[in-house]
Amino acid sequence: MPGKRVQFDDETWAAIDLLARDTMKDFQELAQEAFADLLTKHHRPANLAEALRQSARGAPANDPGPPPPRPRKARAKRRPR
Q: Which residues of 1-26 are buried (b: 16+ CB within 10 A; e: fewer)?
C-alpha cells in the first residue's frame, strides 16, 4: 500500500490520539474513515464498487425517464342560476 507522511500541530495530534484511545481504533483506522468521508463529501468514489456504480448511473440509458403524466379528473360543469 502507498504511504504518505503527514504532520499535525501538537493540539491536533493530542485530539486525534485521544479520539483513537476513546474509540479503541488506531491512527490508520481513523485516517481511512476520515479520507472516506472526504471523498464522499466531494462526490468521489472511495473504492472500485462505488466507482462502477457511479459510472453506471452517469449513463443516460440508466437514468429514469420523466414520470408518466397523471390522468386529469373530469370537472363537473356548473349550471347557471
A: eeeeeeeeeeeeeeeeeeeeeeeeee
Give this prediction's pTM. Answer: 0.59
3-class SS of residue 46: coil
Q: Which of 15, 47, 50 has its CA nearest to residue 30? A: 15
In sequence order, which residues have a C-beta less than 8 Å from that of residue 62 and are 6 or more positions away? 56
Model confidence at 64: pLDDT above 80: no
Tell me, what's the pLDDT at 1? 75
Cell digits of residue 2? 502507498
pLDDT of residue 58: 63
